């Protein structure tokens, strides 16, 4: 009996029983998300570091900021050929990560640099220009 056919049949049965999206819940456990990200919070800024080894074309990574969400899209491609892979721990492939930030950030003030395999993104806290206090106007009522 073919063990791969058994595995395929087993997975089909699990999909039928639990639903086709059952495996999506386990995807991050089975395959860690890329790129790996660290975020450091200061009073009025965030420093986000994303590990993207082997990046030679900065246009292969897109960084988007929307209010309190940071999105990174791109490809990690070590592009090493030759030899037989004996061990492969550096995760590669297409990524699309959305990270919820601890506070809203300015979209007009984003600094991103790449060095030594890390993209460092500096984000600044959004401080509203609007005064949250409203002045009430007093009207004089006519005496009766």
TrEMBL record:
PROSITE patterns: SHSP. Residues 28-141 form the SHSP domain. SUPFAM superfamilies: HSP20-like chaperones (SSF49764). It holds the Pfam family HSP20. Gene3D superfamilies: 2.60.40.790. Belongs to the small heat shock protein (HSP20) family. This is Hsp20/alpha crystallin family protein. The lineage of its organism: Bacteria, Bacillati, Bacillota, Bacilli, Bacillales.
